[in-house]
Protein 1
Amino acid sequence: MGLITFEKYELVVFKKLNDATDFRLNLILGNGKSLQRERRKIYIIKDLTEFLYVGEANTSIKTRFKSGFISHRYFVRNEKARGGYKGYKWIGEYVKKEDHVLNVFVSIFDQEYDIDRTFLESVEGEIVFLIRQNSGSWPLFQNEIHFNNRQNANAIALEIFNKILSS
């Protein structure tokens, strides 16, 4: 069906000595393929009670977060976007909290989807919709949703959503 692996990470958000916000990823479930491979993936960020964000990437998950954190630091320091991107909106909120630990769920797809971003965007949109249906609200820091009707996207989204709920 397209999904090759499902992983869960603990994302620890913290401030360094120079007051810059940084992160650490700890593998909880899976084999770490999302850290090693450049492959299309969908990632979902969740705290203990709320879904925060659903995204799609074609880089390793660590590279994706690194880019988001670097852009966030740049925006905080310079009050302007870095290359049009301000980084993740949730970073500033979670570094202020007592508990800086979030859950990240990553679904990596077969190689055939590496060139089919619209399919992954379809799955991403379906996951966001499932979150809305089940919780009554959109992911707290979701910026946009891509609507592409693609065969099997809703079935794969439901498979991913059920794995999140059961892990």
Protein 2
Amino acid sequence: MVDDPRFFGLFGGLVLMGLLTLGLRWTFGTGKNQRIPDPNDPERDGLLAEVARVPTEAAAQVLRSRLIAAGIRATIGREGRTYRLMVFEDDVGQAKLVLRD
């Protein structure tokens, strides 16, 4: 049985598939240290986080233009009588610095 070429072909194929699986898992696997927000969570705004809340649309547009000028993507959302300025989670710190100035 060990001298059979089909055995070596099958065994080699299984080893190759295992190595390929491990390599792909290592390359494209999600690490445990990555925090990926749940876009379906009703308590959150998907991938966006609020950085400012203003009473008028004009004020929201001014703040959004400041962020865009600084290279930060931003959007405006309305909640009740206020307007919310939202950015991606990774840009929250930088956006707050830009809006503080």
Protein 3
Amino acid sequence: MKWFKKLPALLALMMLPAFIAPVAGQTIDEILARGKVIIAVDVTTPPHGRIDENGKPDGFDPALARLVAKNLGVEAELVPVTSQNRIPFLLSNRVDMVISLFSITPDRAKQIWYSNPYANDASVLAAAAGVTVKTLEDLSGKRVGVPRRTLQDQILTDAAIKDIKLMRYDDESTAIQALLSNQIDVLGTGSLVPNELNKRAPGKNYEVKIVLREAHYGIGIRKGQIDLQQWLNILVYTLEKNGTLNELAVKYRGAPLPKLPTL
């Protein structure tokens, strides 16, 4: 069964953590004492996150989350989140950290802290080859779908394009399914998604039309967690230097990463 057909079960899975009492650790020592690290991950945006054939989180971000647990020497509990609830889950102590296509932005940094970047990407507009979109003005009159509270949502909202039909979805998989079923003309997404679309729905030749903004992903934690941020920075540094991040990138993204910046 294709990943985008699993939406009902996926949404039910995402709702389960909302009923869990806050259990997140505030320090590395608390996480070690508990013997488990609770990490929020995206499972709706391949190749960074999806649900595999066994119903388990898979992709670049879940793989990195499991490496975090392995290097801490604790069990990994992966909690599916969407773009709009990952910060609330973090701030309400439902998770210890977020590894979920979390683009580093000054606005988000008012609420949470980030590790150094572990991957790069770009927010883009994607559509089938036959759809003409060369500038933002070309979106006038078109149905454009975006996941809520993503960079592409923010950029297109701020652009205030005349007559755009901006349609917001609760998660990436719903927005993608809207594109595949011709409910929208253009999708605001990550730069790697069109390749995934073409694997699953060949023939329309989905492609990037406009790059809205380059981005880097960081691991999100609560403000003030200095020891956890330091440890995560060292882990990201180590995984980049020993080639592990590139191995994950080749496996899931199809190409090695460029040199990553530090904060």
Protein 4
Amino acid sequence: MAYHLEDPENRIIVSYKGVVYDVKEYFHEHPGGSDLIEELLGKEIDEKFEEAEHTKTARKIFDNFPIVGTLAAREPSTNSESDDGVKGLDGYNLDQNLAKKLNIDYSKGIIWQLLTKDIPLEEYRQFVNEPKNFVGKDSKHVKMFDNWFCEVNSKTPWWMIPLAYIPISCYLIYMSEGPAWWRLLCWGAGVFSWTVIEYFLHRFIFHGEDVFMPYLPQNNFMYVFHFCLHGIHHAFPEDSLRLVFPPFLGHIILYFVFLKPLRSALPADIAFAFMLGIL
């Protein structure tokens, strides 16, 4: 049964498990598009929400919405559990989010806190694998460092990528030798090689919290290494300035890990075109 809810204050409201929420601040941020919410405005969303098989993280988003009231026709769920073992609404309100379990203060740099706190591996794994949302917040960028220089250089706006790598690409094209078909072949080999390398990096290193960390002694430096390398993308997927490596780190890796060994091992006509494919 669907209830149509009239709101005299022009809030954007929906009802979930008997509780009426104002979702105005989240309306245009819904990952599936605002049109999916628009057709449910002023109604109960329980059935559609469950049909979409939302994750536990998605259910936690309700904690961020202002509560307008409850439906008089039914009591709010307090201790129910769905088939997947997820508690009802009040259960989530009582269950503090994972960041609070670690006592992460988002007004301070996260890196120093990860270095100095006593964090069990399981809590770190939960912390990085539970996406945090920024509903109702002006800034969607987390603070990694307290030092302003480190903080600024940990951010990479989209325009910095072409600015940093197009000149290097032009240099590699200029330095490539041989007929076009040969350079194209070497370039393709570089693309294929990086595809394989990135697959193994992503599976076994970037997701080290599930692969190698459980077999090593607990180490905060390992947490920080993993968080900077990849964990931040899972913990804070809305932070658009931490999607890729900062260029100055990328340049160092490209030169010492790839270009220099390639130049030592291969002829120039292969090395530069191969490196262009990797880049």
